[in-house]
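Researcher: Go.
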Amino acid sequence: MSGPVLHVDGGRSVRFNTHGLILLAVCVSSALGANTLVLVDTLATRETHSIFLKSLQERGHEVSVKAADDPSLQLSRYGEYIYQNLVILAPGVEEFGGALSVETIVEFIDGGGSVLVAGSREAADLIRELVTEAGVEMDEEGAAVIDHLHYDANDDGQHTLIAAPSTGLIDSEVMVGPRDAVPLLYRGTGLITDAENPLVLPVLRAPSTAYCYNPTQPISDYPHATGQNMLLVAALQARNNARVVVSGSLEFFSDAFIMTSVQTPQGAFYERSGNGKVVEALSQWVFMEEGVLRVASVEHHLVGETHPPVAYTIKQDVEYKIKVERLVDGVWKPFLANDLQMEFVRIDPFVRLTMTPHSNGVFSVKFQVPDVYGVYQFKVEYNRVGFTRLFSTTQVSVRPFTHVQYERFIECAYPYYASAFSMMIGVFLFSLVFLHHKESPSKSKTE
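Model: Structure:
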């Protein structure tokens, strides 16, 4: 079966088959922007969260909104991922539709995909199981975050509409934007993480006076999550730099919470909550639009030269340069920092130095090769909150001096030189005396 015909300039025509058109459409879609799949409980979520979804579209995302139980759901096709980002705004889903499951989402994260999950106090077991895979545990079903000191005046009396102070935000402008004094509205369940897990980041901590419990039941035992040990929003940056954000509140991303005013019990009034700025910055971070670093080039050579040698020799002076770029508004720009270090490693680091930054994004350092030969690596590893993990290694060989490179005379050996020459002179004098000395004739006759 022949495919459609595309007419081009000059009267020529090119015939495509159906599979070629599908591949072309996928390539064009990937070139225009990231494909983002948004799963919702009901399609009404498109209206209640329209500001958040519109911001994604304005930033170039190809947003596809589908029901979480849609039987046509799939993340990959022909071994390639269709979407780069996954947003789950469906805390009540009991089972994903189509080929989607917790296992496939975990594989999607392992493949470098970005995931944003919003829960609630009535989140289903499926969502709880999913966030557990990201190192986050939601409190028991029905439990809500309660704070009798930090709540909004529009609360229904249960004090579950939390006006969380912005001081609870993580100290990373890359992740949550510039911090101001405007509180954030939150209504949902509490999150618990392992404090010793270095991959999980506390994006928004609960106030110290908050606790998580079912507001319709009397408190009979100590709450599972209390104070600043409880998180409202958590994030995970995996070792492959894949990012996951988990919120215990679906309403945190809603139009109502973004546009509404905030009035605290202490009488402070804010015309608009801080949710809008935080949601915007956090979505940019989780979808790899902010905080992304890459190594553009690496150079190493002897001081005064421009090309690397086949192998370095011990005690030579070496210059190392690495160019690092940061993604800003879709454009790679020079990255500036004053804490980027280089290590010259064999098994353990022999040299560790902080590199000098330059305005073009190049970091450089000069050092002397250690007096130990072997196989070394130039290693740069940069881990900072909010940024992707930067890792670069370059292997080189270090050899000892050749026989023509050693010093011919060293001061500490002068006594040995003197003894050797004195012995040579003594042997020479002894030889002269032995060869030219003759015994007297009278002595020989007497004998």
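Model: Confidence is low (pLDDT under 50) at residues 1-32.
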